[in-house]
Amino acid sequence: MRQIIAAAIVLLMLLFLSPWLRAEENTPETDAALQPLQTEQPNPASGAGSDAAHTVRLWDGSAVQTLTAAEYLPGVVRGEMPATFEEEALKAQAAAERTYLYYRMTAAPKDSHPDADVCTDPGCCTAWLSEADARAKWGGKFDQYEAKVQQAVADTDGQVVLYDGAPIMAVFHSSSAGATAASGDVWAAELPYLVSVIMLRIALAIPAAIGSEVFITYIGLGLSVETPSLGNLINDGRKVMMQAGLRYQLLYPTLILSFVTIAFYLIGNAFSDAADPKNHLQ
Q1: Which of 17, 30, 53, 209 is an S-S bond match for 13, by CB 3.0 to 4.6 Å?
Q2: Does position 39 have pLDDT exceeding 60, yes or no?
Q3: Which stretch of DSSP H or E encloses residue 12?
Q4: What pLDDT, on the 0 to 100 scale, is given for residue 282?
Q5: Residues 180-209: b if buried by 16+ CB within 10 A, e if exposed
Q6: Do residues 74 and 150 make contact, with C-beta atoms less than 8 angstroms apart?
Q7: Helix, strand, or coil here: 266?
Q8: Looking at the predicted structure, is the pLDDT value of residue 114 above 80?
Q9: What φ, ψ does residue 99 adopt, rounded to 5°?
């Protein structure tokens, strides 16, 4: 963490201090009391293990099907992620789905399907696409896509994400606006491994504010031309960028904007990692 912070500080010093200043390199420290998340392949007695060794009760909307995890997981990967994605992405999806499955198998049953571990409703549990439906959906590419899905599940057989020795609630989303919310802000339960990355949010807000000023001033709706700002400097540099001797007037403020953005992002990300070490997969 300290190395990242040092790198960000160096970038800021290069902008505002003399170029001969140097930043000392620090050795990162670890806290033995922290218990980060772990990705491992535990034995079946711990609630995980080989997919073929576990039975899943699946509610398909009309009846409860009994499958092994090895039979169930390919259907979830088919339903939750496009088979055109890279193999490593499919593997990550398979591991996340397996973790969520084992979490549901050890949690209290849901009222919507009290006799089943999971269902095929993505609004309740996860999406699930049967082999027959996948064949109809993928057509002539079924064999190619199915081989990728089956390989991803097989290559991650038994791999789950644990916290204090138990599978986590491995919820996920397809996109993010640069920050995460704590589980208590979305659901009722506060989970120690689903926390808001506050420092990253703050760090991203600072360069975002600078970028907004630059854009608004650049288009003539911000600060007056007499007020020194990156927006005005970039706008003035744009007007003379075609003159060989004056191109620096555009280059320097643009570089400053880039360095400040990178520096704040590195600092915020480092503090975020330090504050929420349980988010790390090791």
Answers
A1: 17
A2: no
A3: helix 2-16
A4: 40
A5: beebeeeeeeeeebbbbbbbbbebbebbee
A6: yes
A7: helix
A8: yes
A9: -60, -45
